[in-house]
Amino acid sequence: MNSLRFILVSLALALLFILASPSSATAQIVLHDEFPNLSFGSPVGLYEPGDGTNRLFVVEQAGRIRAFQNDSLVTSTKMFLDITDSIASGGELGLLGLAFHPQYASNGYFYVDYTRNNPLRTVISRFQVSSNPDSAIRASELVLLEQPQPFDNHNGGQLAFGPDGYLYIGFGDGGSGGDPFGNGQDKSTMLGKILRINVDSAAGGKQYSIPADNPFYNNDSGFVQEIFTVGMRNPWRFSFDKPTSRLWVGDVGQNQWEEIDTAVNGGNYGWNIMEGDHCYNSGSCNQTGLSLPVWEYFHNNGRCSITGGFVYRGSSLPSLYGKYVYGDLCSGEVFTLKLNQLGPPTNELLLNAEMMSSFGVDKFQELYMCAYSEGRIYKFISPSPPEPVSLVSPADGAHGLPNVVECRWTYSVAATKYHLEVATDSAFTSFFLNDSTILDTVRQVGPLANATKYYWRVRALNDNGGSVFTASRSFTTAAYSAAYHVMQGWNLFSLPLEVADSRLSAVLPPAISGAFRYDPVSGYQMTDTLIPGTGYWIKFGDSTTVSIVGDPRGTDTVDVVPGWNLIGVLSGPVAVDSIIQIPSGILLSSFFEYQGAYQKVPVLSPSKGYWVRAGGAGQIILQTASPGMLPRARLAGFPKR
């Protein structure tokens, strides 16, 4: 990859969505954020260890390998290996490749490709897992080989074991631009090549041996014996297709053409004589002995750098089976390529994605993509209606519930939203709520009518449809209840009903402070028991709605003392001009509520506390006609004062 290709990619992505046309395949296969609780730092590879544990390992460019179970509900990763202190990273440098030994389950060996400084070089090392399967032994590193790098780009980085049991290693041409040292065609350097070595034996003073059928094995010309193929510019991800043993290579181009090769032993793939199918830097060139790519594409529509992928061999996406899936880093396009026995290959746009650094497969050969800048791992899935959910609470037939109820249900993995219906009849024709836009698995419903039976049910939704509704449940609200909204921070609150348990912890479990009442003589006093008719300062950690069940209070006499008093009201609202004062004129101020600031109010509402100033000791009399109704303008038996 060119170093500039990791920079300002968002501009190329924006251009893509303007220029790219949709494909019919997009509606059939989508990318799913498979591990929504996990995120990674610049992931450049996803690997499966082949030990039967159904774990996945993600390589972070800075020098970490994280392990976790292949479970969409997983919430954390294990630090398998951290060699950040040994890594030169950034741009195209870093920890770039990982390969597990074919007998990893028994020997615990795995191999990494990373870059180091002083001097700048690529290192191929072997490590071993510890007795803890989620942790490697840092001190077990065995360096197999090192290759000096003249520039900080075009490092390759891919490692993979082939069907022959040998380790294949991808090297770029050493960097800069245009291969200034001609490394791609120079058989005396590892740069610009794919190597093949036998890590299960050592010979010739090396930590490995050379397979006897390598093209330059025991040659007398000074050629590198590890070479498997020649003429690579920067092979950014290659993979073996097991059923065919074919080696698929995505080789990044220079300025115009990206290419896909199916590499064979001794093949020469042209760089820097060729860029794709085209002569590089001249109108004609000698193509004798060169292998042309099986596919190429031009740098248009924001495209600039191929990311090699895999031939899909999983079972969940039949339409992808046998097709090579790859993408372009800059445009975010993901394509499929199919080689045909008769006729040219078939290349199709599959979908559009975020910037993909790499693809990977799990033990079931299902396909994944690493989103580099986003730090997420996406899985290729065929969208289907989500699995049904189950209702959690309230319990079926629950009685005496408050007039705001929290309906809860289970999570559906494939759901993007949920549809909740609440009705007053079991046939769901008289809806109180019909909401199909819910993103969470809980919804507050209310305020509901008192002493009323409700029915509710839920289904899961995604872009491809919905699950069946759950069987309905019912609940019945209490004869009298109150619901009120509290703000984050301090609230002026009063108790509007007679409740069975008036302790603060029972009435307001979300509170994060005690209840403070105010006495003009002794000041603030904290209490745990709330008295109706009294106002309290209470603090909450978040804005929320709280409901309580109790008996209504239609009238109340509140004692006031000289100075400022904190009072509360009844089960229903009370107009300020209907309040009786004994003696007349005892109140010296308006009533003030607090909603982030103090303000005068013409009506006192249940559950809120109010400040009012009195000139002396006396009483104020409050009355409502019935819960939920406005008060009468005048009180029976008392003239308006």
Structure overview:
The strands form 16 sheets. Strands 28, 30, 31, 33, 34 and 35 form a six-stranded mixed sheet that branches. A four-stranded antiparallel sheet has the order 1-26-25-24, with no helix packed on it. A four-stranded antiparallel sheet has the order 2-3-4-5, with no helix packed on it. A hairpin with a 4-residue loop joins strand 7 and strand 8. It is 3% helix and 41% strand. The N terminus and C terminus are likely disordered. With 641 residues, the chain is mostly beta strands. The chain has three helices and 50 strands. The chain is elongated and about 115 Å long.
Q: Distance N terminus to C terminus?
A: 86 Å
Enumerate the spans where pLDDT stays under 50 for 5 or more consecutive residues. 1-27, 625-641
Mean pLDDT, nearest integer?
90
Shape: elongated
Question: Which structural traits does this protein have?
Answer:
641 residues, four-stranded antiparallel sheet, elongated, disordered N terminus, disordered C terminus
Explain briefly what this protein structure is.
The chain contains 3 helices and 50 strands. By secondary structure, the chain is mainly beta.
Give a topology summary.
Elements: H1 9-19, E1 30-33, E2 43-47, E3 55-60, E4 64-69, E5 78-82, E6 95-100, H2 104-107, E7 109-116, E8 121-129, E9 136-148, E10 159-161, E11 167-170, E12 194-197, E13 227-229, E14 235-241, E15 246-251, E16 257-263, E17 274-275, E18 278-279, E19 295-298, E20 306-311, E21 324-328, E22 333-338, E23 346-352, E24 356-361, E25 367-371, E26 376-381, E27 391-393, E28 398-401, E29 405-409, E30 417-423, E31 431-438, E32 442-445, E33 453-462, E34 465-466, E35 473-477, E36 481-486, E37 489-494, H3 504-507, E38 515-519, E39 523-527, E40 535-540, E41 544-549, E42 555-560, E43 563-567, E44 574-575, E45 580-582, E46 592-594, E47 598-600, E48 603-604, E49 610-614, E50 618-623
Parallel strand pairs: 28-35
Antiparallel strand pairs: 1-26, 2-3, 3-4, 4-5, 6-7, 7-8, 8-9, 10-11, 11-12, 12-13, 14-15, 15-16, 16-19, 17-18, 20-21, 21-22, 22-23, 24-25, 25-26, 27-29, 29-32, 30-31, 30-33, 33-34, 33-35, 36-41, 37-40, 38-39, 42-50, 43-49, 44-48, 45-50, 46-47
